[in-house]
């Protein structure tokens, strides 16, 4: 009796991610070379709205076209199981990112946080100017005035459409009074600490 046993190859799980320095603006070109050689790389993208005439950032989303730009220009992330010496020979690659004499790397948890940040920044914006959808504690983005593009939390609402938004990105925080038509509701930020906040500012190092 003949028996045929089929053994499937198991792709090893990564244990960390390396940072590849590339020329800013050439991240997509580098990934094309990765694909040509059957290798894998990744870099996070952020949706932006730019003016069709100048290519500069539009003051409001409806004034420009939506495009995606690298969230961290000049870096491509490569899992340790996909690292291949050939990637250092690709055009527009400047080498493995280093911190002093050490090779920089990110843990799996750090990479999960970075993907959370990318998903949060690119989530659809909803509820701009709709008072019924806003409540105390909601996250909103200020669309006009000196604090345009800052994200804060609704502290107080009144019956005349005015609200107070607390922004904690400026020193110790500041409360801004604005109108409901000047903000838009945004998704709740990731619950885990941000990759680049005060509790996680340093990349892991390996010799």
From TrEMBL:
One Pfam family here: KOW
CDD domains: KOW_NusG
Signal peptide: none
GO biological process, one term: DNA-templated transcription elongation
Organism superkingdom: Bacteria
Family annotation (InterPro entries): KOW, NGN_dom_sf, Translation_prot_SH3-like_sf
Sequence segments annotated as region (Disordered): 178-207
Domain KOW intervals: 133-160
Protein name, per record: KOW domain-containing protein
Organism this protein belongs to: Bradyrhizobium diazoefficiens
């Amino acid at each position: 009796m003949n028996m045929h046993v089929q053994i499937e190859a198991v792709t090893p799980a990564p244990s960390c991610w390396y940072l590849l320095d590339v020329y800013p603006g050439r991240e997509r070109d580098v990934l094309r070379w990765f694909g040509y050689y059957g290798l894998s790389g990744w870099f996070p993208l952020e949706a932006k709205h730019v003016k069709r005439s100048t290519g500069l950032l539009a003051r409001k989303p409806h004034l420009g076209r939506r495009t995606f730009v690298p969230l961290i220009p000049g870096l491509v992330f490569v899992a340790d199981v996909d690292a291949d010496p050939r990637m250092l020979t690709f055009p527009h690659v400047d080498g493995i990112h280093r911190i002093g004499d050490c090779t920089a790397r990110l843990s799996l948890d750090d990479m999960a946080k970075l993907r959370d940040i990318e998903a949060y920044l690119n989530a659809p914006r909803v509820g701009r100017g709709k008072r019924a959808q806003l409540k105390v504690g909601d996250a909103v983005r200020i669309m006009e005035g000196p604090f345009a593009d800052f994200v804060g939390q609704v502290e107080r609402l009144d019956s005349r459409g005015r609200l107070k938004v607390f922004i904690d990105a400026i020193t110790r925080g500041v409360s801004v009074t604005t109108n409901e038509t000047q903000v838009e509701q945004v998704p709740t930020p990731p619950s885990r600490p941000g990759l680049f906040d005060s509790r996680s500012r340093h990349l892991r190092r390996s010799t």
